[in-house]
Design goal:
This protein has 296 residues and is an alpha+beta fold. The chain is built from twelve helices and 15 strands. The strands form four sheets. It has a five-stranded antiparallel sheet. The chain has a five-stranded mixed sheet with strand order 14-13-12-11-15, with helices on both faces. It binds flavin-adenine dinucleotide.
Length: 296
């Protein structure tokens, strides 16, 4: 349970951090909250030659609404900052619902949303939430910044598209096109566990129609799954019980669950259907409320 030897650097500027990644050799890792990387190192699933600790970088601990209507979450914004955020409670029902369901309080005090996206665990909660919301990641490297839609960011289990010398500096949720509704439901074997199944639903309504919909699934495939067909079945029309049933069925069809110690594939697919149906049902009854629940 001890990591192998590594060099440790804790730069005080982003340029210095990127320089260290660029010059650092074959296997250098960014350290943010350390809540996934350190356990992986202790188990020797990861043995980087150098860690670049970004915790001393100034100005990355924010989450804020920008004048353009987007929400921006810096690379050092902790899960706990989001759990207790009044801004999220007022404007982001899907994120506000998910934040208290990520891990346990100890992990939430250190772990970061951006680190969770970078870690790309198929059971990571934030990737589903950001995917449902049409979010993106801003990466910075020696050549400048680029915007990567979340749908393109994760390439497989524990894999993302960042270059070896890029740092994810923030995540962005775009401006809503209408009134936001939705939530996140997660079944876990015990409080603080990873998801047996998690489901994120984000819809925006205007003039009686759904103008934007996103549905994404946690823990039921090799990576986070965007249920695009299910979302498309809702878009451009009023939300009705029939459409909710159709979307729930399509989302269940998009899941690729495997039978394991957490449950059978059939059970997990059933949960997706139930969760999507519940979340959309909640959105139908209120266009502004969030549904936050640990499913028992
Ligand atoms: C007991 C336990 C229970 C947990 N339960 C859950 C759960 O229920 N749901 C859930 O979603 N997660 C869970 N987690 C994981 C937790 O949410 C982590 O905090 C998160 O996955 C990673 O964030 P971090 O800041 O700790 O990243 P780190 O551990 O520091 O890094 C993770 C990976 O991302 C890379 N990385 C991090 N930040 C950046 C960046 N800015 N730019 C480029 N690369 C970066 C690192 O190099 C590393 O490869 C759990 C963890 C533990 C220990």
């Amino acid at each position: 349970m001890f990591p192998s030897r590594f060099r440790y650097e804790a730069p005080h500027s982003l340029d210095e951090a990127i320089g260290l990644l660029h010059d650092g050799g074959d296997y250098v890792k960014v350290l943010a909250g350390g809540q996934s990387l350190v356990p992986m190192m202790k188990l020797r699933f990861a043995s980087p030659e150098m860690l670049v600790d970004i915790n001393n970088l100034p100005g990355l601990a924010y989450h804020r609404a920008d004048p353009d209507g987007s929400l921006r979450i810096g690379a050092l914004c902790r899960h706990a900052d989001l759990e207790f955020s009044e801004l999220l409670k007022a404007t982001q029902p899907t994120m506000a619902a998910a934040a208290p369901l990520v891990a346990d309080p100890l992990v939430r005090n250190r772990g970061t949303l951006v680190g969770s996206l970078c870690h790309a665990d198929p059971q990571g909660d934030w990737a589903s939430v950001l995917l449902a919301l049409g979010g993106s990641v801003i990466a910075q490297g020696p050549g400048g910044r680029r915007v990567i839609p979340l749908a393109d960011f994760v390439t497989g289990p524990f894999q993302n598209v960042l270059a070896y010398d890029e740092i994810a500096v923030e995540a962005v949720v775009p401006k809503a096109l209408g009134t936001r509704a939705g939530g996140y439901l997660k079944l876990e074997r015990r409080v603080g566990d990873f998801a047996t199944v998690g489901t994120a639903v984000a819809i925006e309504t205007s003039g009686g129609n759904v103008v934007r919909a996103g549905i994404a699934l946690t823990g039921v495939g090799g990576s986070t799954i965007g249920a695009a067909e299910a979302a498309a079945a809702l878009t451009g029309k009023p939300l009705t019980t029939d459409r909710i049933a159709e979307a729930a069925e399509l989302a269940a069809g998009a899941a690729q669950p495997k039978t394991d110690h957490r449950g059978t594939a059939e059970y997990k697919r059933h949960l997706v259907r139930v969760f999507v149906s519940r979340l959309l049902g909640g959105a139908l009854s209120t266009s502004t409320g969030a549904t936050a629940e640990r499913a028992a």
